[in-house]
Amino acid sequence: MTAMFDFIGFLIKIAIYGAIIFAAIALFGYNQLRALLESVKAAFSNIGVTARKQVSLTNQLIEVVKGYADTEKFVHLKISDDISAANLAQLQQESHSMVSAISGMAQRYPDLKASQQYNTLMEAIYNIENDLERQRERYNEAARAYCCGLI
User: Fold this and answer.
1) Dihedral, CA atoms, 20, 25, 29, 35, nearest 10 degrees?
2) What are the CB-based long-range contacts (under 8 Å, 24+) for 21-29?
């Protein structure tokens, strides 16, 4: 009878140790997934910040161009508080088309093309576009790490 109680006690100890080990592994895994999720959120947020910088620079460029071409009607781009992938893609597209239109107009106005402020803003916009591409790559890497962590 004592041997049976010892065996039951041994099984209970194994079950308790197993539960503790399982809980530790589950907690560690949960913390890793939370860290990966936070890196995905941070990477997406960085894309939003960079896109807002791009829109701001594009609006500054519009102000510079308005002084050279009164006949052209450029509308300032608006930044929404809604940070969604669709909104960011739309902002990117609008900004890109506006910069393309301004670049085309600069060909007609040599004084604009020679303006230091114009050249500085165009260089800053190109740098922001490169930065935006790097931010997207970081986001994709973080999302891939998060998805692979879930599988």
Assistant:
1) 70
2) none
89: tokens are 């893609």
106: CB partners within 8 A, 6+ apart = 65, 112, 113, 118
pLDDT band at 28 (very low <50, low <70, confident <90, very high): very high
Q: Which two tokens stand for residue 59?
A: 């609006």
Please check the confidence at residue 151 and state whether its pLDDT lies above 60.
Answer: no
- The C-alpha atoms of residue 54 and residue 136 are separated, in whole angstroms, by 14
CA distance 64 to 23: 61
Burial of 130 (0-12, 13-18, 19+ CB in 10 A): exposed
Q: pTM for this one?
A: 0.68
Please state, in angstroms and rounded to a whole number, the distance separating the CA atoms of residues 26 and 103.
Answer: 55
Report pLDDT for 77: 66
Contact 68, 149 (CB under 8 A): no
Cα 46 to Cα 43: distance, rounded to the nearest angstrom: 5
